[in-house]
Design brief:
3 domains; 41% helix; Rossmann fold; 598 residues; 26 helices; seven-stranded mixed sheet; homodimer; five-stranded parallel sheet
């Protein structure tokens, strides 16, 4: 009896490998259809997985997974892999708190041999795995699957180059180079233009099979078998179409890289809910306003024109945008080069991806005091993308860098002013803002510079000072309102700048009130509250400082609001912490209070 | 009249360009001779500059510097450039506090159009410069000079790939690819093995001139003129011999990359002064001891086997070493791959270079809780190499990463124990230690694990607690002795771990003594003292904490001891700070002290 669904009968890849090859086209069709249904009903990363359905089936059919290890780059394209490795049913919950990660996770499955989220890591990881296999004489393979977008990352080159060095040892590294012409946006770079994957890999000492049509399953199965049979590191060059099998996604894979739920038939997406524009959109708008009056402004994106709003900027100023590829290291130093000649580059890069450019920010920008602005989107907790994508290290690593200004706006009006501040300051300047909808406040007609290092006292008080930053400011205000209802008078300071801190206002509050509570959407170690502690320890010792933020852990994927609650960035927790801080600072037995003694 | 020295008459490159080409060989000879004399008398980066004497002369002879911008990668090879650009006489003071930097510095000369120190940045910077020139219609060139070693850095690939993307716009980027087969050590990588620079660049869409013999001045002048005449980005492939013209350096360019003073005639170097072995040597010894008993241990270096001591390890365990090239990003994730399969890799990377691997430490190692040990040499202030090479950001960026253990040994015996702790912990673990001579203490027979997060109270006291870390511990002990002479009783705690901190011992000291002074060879923002502040603010509020460390600035090149004094890391400053903290914490008018009240 032929089952209704071959796919449902595949609980693990071994089941797939028991099928005759003649059945695999049906598996491909079923899997593709299921992924489209999933996308329609649930959304998620969409076009990438559709493009590699045949490849996913072929890899699991030919390689003995999980004994042979497949390392998927980034993981955007891993939904089919999840479906074939025991997670078909749970895919309906993907990216939700109770469901699978949107990327690969070692903790999720023995078939996810190496986690992913940031691009370009797969060859490095797979080469390490292949070397470990070789050392213990295990006859298995490590297969990295990387797109031509991911291959623009310098570390992918580093890994290929190292693989060429190690070729004589014969580690069983296999690289599938999946050329679909796309990062999220259309791919860039000389290699993408030339398409000469064979020449590139040959120069690095690596043999190349292909190119093979990644939608010709029979040819692909042959090619993957040939790849497996190589000795030593080898590359299979596959050409695929991102979004394959769903016409709207094939036609516009850029827009269909990720999607919310949509109508299966025509691909119609429901109109966005009305509400405030995103922080990203507000940033793009502000940048356009400033660029319109300042011809020195140019924008840099690292393969994320959509996510950073640089695509909107590019529509208006097409000659003033650089997409450098997934190349944050180069992007930062390229910006420094532009700045050294009088331009005012704005690097629009997600917080977690800018980690790749840390050394360049310190060594090429800050040390040379060059006027590069870092517009850091997706700072703080990002929701469904989870721990690889949170921007919760930026304040710690940026504020340590001498001379760098670090700021965060509490709303989109302040965003435009801080962006003007950054660009006109002539200094290295980092500006972070979160994912999601901005506040819906009115914009002043013109972005204009604010005094660097000046916070804003939004509300005065006498019992406790809430010192907040960026997106936590409205939460702190709400906590202050709750405290007021409980008879506690809270001052609320929007610090605006993490570096330099507003010593005058902070010091005055500390001296007068004596109890300070800092609030930040960032790890507590080395973050904003830590900066406040540093200042007050020397400026106003004896001040009681408590800090609200993320303790020492990785925050799992969930709705963004839930994550904020999880880490205690909600009104009730903040208000309770303020009360606790007050209680702790009041000496027992009615003794004169700390602050009273000053 | 022919002057005695053509070289001395060249005050700037325009003087060079006024000479007939027939005189240039003499300039080359004079310059090379002067560089050898300089090396013999003063030491410094030696072999690199000797290898590019002809190239340096040819570039300044053909390009209209400084209108044409030359960007030297790293700067090791920039001594000849300095000599031809008005700094011939000051070279005698190179790398000293009063003299020029050992690298390129924008602040030093208009001919140093972009600073350097870390490898692989030049093409990015030059492409940014070339784009800025193109935008304002300036008919000038930006020339990056990069070695095949520097080109193993992923960002150099990213920049070449971006140059290929921009080729149609025609930015006047020129890249001189100087192949000498060396990083500091012999170069590695598939590209280095194949030597197929033309194929590599062609795949990225860039035309290549050459290869040209970089010591054939006439051919070189023609090739550089041809390079200059290109339209759009182009590469000149030059082959040179590192150390050219000084036989001992030609024979062993690895050993002659940098040198102290030596005897001009035979290249004899004076025997090293006797004294304790370096921290690096102690690390290598400890690693060998541990590797001898633990077959899981493998070592990774990013093109620095000499500087990190991995060369010694490699002599004993040649099969257990990976030199990944100047590829810290890859090196870290490669280590994570090895660790995911049960090995215990040790990444031996200088602190300032590990900045390149920050994202990978967080994303690939810590998030996946993989047992990679980071053996971080050159932490703290490094002396003559100056601000590009200080390791004064590591505590801030590492301790922010969830789950990562961060430690620092106070002497080489603790180093071996902490290294065993790291490797046997099964956790992501960072261990930092400084440049220079270790302490000369005796080693216990076997490295054995210490309790993670446990400090060591070296001396008890009652008035003030000095809390130190790593190399600052002996200084804190000396400060305590000075305080004792002044009648002040100081406790000294060696924290050993920055993360997790020793809450028990720190808390006990804080509660009992009430005044804490932290000492660290690191920037104050987010560093060790900041971690102590964080802990005590919640654990023991009311403790007075003062911090000694580096304030918000880049510390210029000088002798290491002088740098320590400059930033206040000397016995007198620490003792004075302790006295000041005590005075500030004692209430005026003999009122009962803070700590007395508890």
């Amino acid at each position: 009896m032929i089952p209704d669904s071959l796919l449902d009968a595949i609980r693990e890849p071994a089941d797939l490998r028991r099928l005759p090859h003649a059945s695999l086209p049906r598996v491909v069709d079923e899997l593709r259809e299921r992924l489209i249904e999933l996308g329609a009903s649930r959304g998620g990363h969409f076009a990438g997985s559709l493009g590699v359905v045949e490849l996913t089936v072929a890899l699991h059919a030919i390689f003995e997974t999980p004994r042979d290890r497949i390392v998927w780059d980034v993981g955007h394209q891993g939904y089919g892999h999840k479906a074939l490795t025991g997670r078909l049913d749970s895919l309906a919950q993907i990216r939700r708190a109770e469901g699978p990660s949107g990327f690969l996770r070692r903790s999720e499955s023995p078939f996810d041999v190496f986690g992913a989220g940031h691009a370009g890591t797969s060859i490095s990881a797979a080469l390490g795995i292949a070397e470990a296999l070789r050392r213990r004489g295990e006859d298995a393979h490590a297969v990295a699957v990387i797109g031509d977008g991911g291959a623009t990352a310098g570390m992918a080159f580093e890994a290929l180059n190292h693989a060429g060095e190690l070729a004589a040892l014969g580690p069983a590294l296999r690289v599938v180079y999946n050329e679909n012409g796309m990062s999220i946006a259309p791919n860039v770079g000389g290699l993408s233009r030339s398409g000469d994957v064979r020449g590139y890999c040959a120069a690095l000492g690596l043999p190349v099979i292909g190119p093979v049509d990644g939608h010709d399953l029979e040819a692909l199965l042959r090619a993957v078998a040939e790849l497996r049979a190589q000795s030593g590191p080898a590359v299979l060059h596959v050409r695929t179409r991102k979004g394959k099998g769903f016409a709207p996604a094939e036609a516009d894979p850029y827009r269909w890289h990720a999607t919310g739920p949509f109508e299966r038939a025509g691909g119609t997406r429901p109109a966005g809910t009305s509400g405030p524009p995103s922080w990203t959109a507000c940033f793009a708008e502000a940048l356009m306003r400033i660029a319109a009056r300042d011809p020195r402004v140019v924008a840099i994106t690292a393969a994320m024109p959509d996510g950073t709003g640089i695509d909107r900027f590019a529509e208006r100023f097409p000659e003033r945008v650089y997409d450098v590829g997934i190349a944050e290291q180069h992007g930062v130093t390229f910006a420094a080069g532009l700045a050294s000649e009088g331009l005012r580059p704005v690097c629009a890069i997600y917080s977690s991806f800018l980690q790749r450019g840390f050394d360049q920010i310190a060594h090429d920008v800050a040390l040379q005091d060059l006027p590069v602005t870092f517009a850091i989107d997706r700072a703080g907790l990002v929701g469904a993308d989870g721990p690889t994508h949170h921007g919760v290290l930026d304040l710690a690593y940026l504020r340590a860098i001498p001379g760098l200004v670090v700021a965060a706006p509490r709303d989109e009006n302040q965003l435009q002013h801080l962006l003007a501040t950054a660009i006109e300051s002539g200094r290295p300047f980092a500006l972070r803002f979160p994912r999601g909808a901005a506040c819906g406040v009115a914009l002043d007609p013109d972005p204009k510079p604010l005094p660097i290092g000046r916070g804003e006292l939004l509300q005065d008080g006498t019992d406790v000072a809430l010192v907040a930053l960026g997106k936590t400011v409205p939460v702190a205000l709400a906590a202050a309102a709750r405290l007021a209802a409980a008879g506690v008078s809270a001052a609320v300071l929007d610090a605006r700048f993490v570096k330099p801190l507003d010593e005058e206002r902070l010091g005055e509050l500390a001296d007068r009130i004596g109890v300070v509570l800092t609030v930040e959407d960032h790890l507590l170690a080395g973050g904003f509250g830590s900066a406040v502690l540093e200042l007050l320890a020397s400026r106003s010792p004896g001040t009681r400082v408590r800090r609200i933020g993320i303790d020492d852990r990785f925050v799992e994927h969930a709705e963004q609001d839930d994550q904020w609650r999880q880490v205690g960035l909600d009104v009730a927790t903040i208000a309770d912490a303020a009360l606790a801080a007050l209680a702790a600072s009041a000496p027992p037995g009615g003794r004169q209070s700390e602050r009273g003694r000053r």
